[in-house]
Every structure is written in C-alpha cells, then in structure tokens.
Design brief:
Helices cover 47% and strands 23% of the residues. It is α+β, with helices and mostly antiparallel strands. The protein has a single domain, classed as Alpha-Beta Complex (Aspartate Aminotransferase, domain 1), CATH 3.90.1150.200. This is DUF1801 domain-containing protein.
Length: 131
Amino acid sequence: MDGNKIAYVSVDDYISNYPPAVQQILQTLRKEIQASAPDAKEKISYQMPTFDLQGSLVHFAAYKHHIGFYPGADGIAAFQAELSGYKGAKGSVQFPIDKPLPYGLIAKIVKYRAARNLERAEAKRSGNKKS
C-alpha cells in the first residue's frame, strides 16, 4: 500500500498485487492465521487483509521493508516480551520483509486474540440476556 489507491475487493486481490516473493510471505501468513482461527472470516478493511471473529481479529499489510501485523493493543501488550525485538506501536508490529516471520509467535497472538474476542462476545450475549 505504498501510496497507490487500489481498492482491493478480496484478500486474493490484495496479495496478487505484490511481487512473487512477497506474495509467498503473505500467503504463508494468511494460512497461519487461518489455521490459528479457523472460524474467522476474511475481508478487506482499511484496504488491507483482515480477519474477523466476533469483531476485528487481526489485519496485515505489505510495505517496502516490512510486513505490518495489527493484532490490536491487547495483542501487542500480551506478547510484549516476545515482540521486543521488533519495531512497533501500541497495536501493531513490523516484521522485516527480508527476515523470516515468526509464524509460531503470530499463531500464539492470533489464538490469544480469538479467545479474547469470543470471551467478549459471550459476555455481551450473557449481559444482554439479563436485560
């Protein structure tokens, strides 16, 4: 998403716009997320691949020098020690594109976020039933 204004219609469409080496990284990341949260649904949100499971789960995007991974502030905070070697912000982390992505760590973050989303959804359902 380096300044272009392409309106992506699907995750496949997004991935297809990158060079083959980057496509391979994105496809592997996508498969890791799918395996870690098999009930999550894919969509494009904020013009990047997004997984939704009872609300936004994670987003990812390719840039010139890194892959951006966006598990939200709680996903970053819960794995702060493991993510300390990477550049990031409150709700995001940047994985250098020229180094292997930490797929095991990404899987743990996705599973954590999925559990949190399902807990929140259940609490909301339970709370609404009491009303």
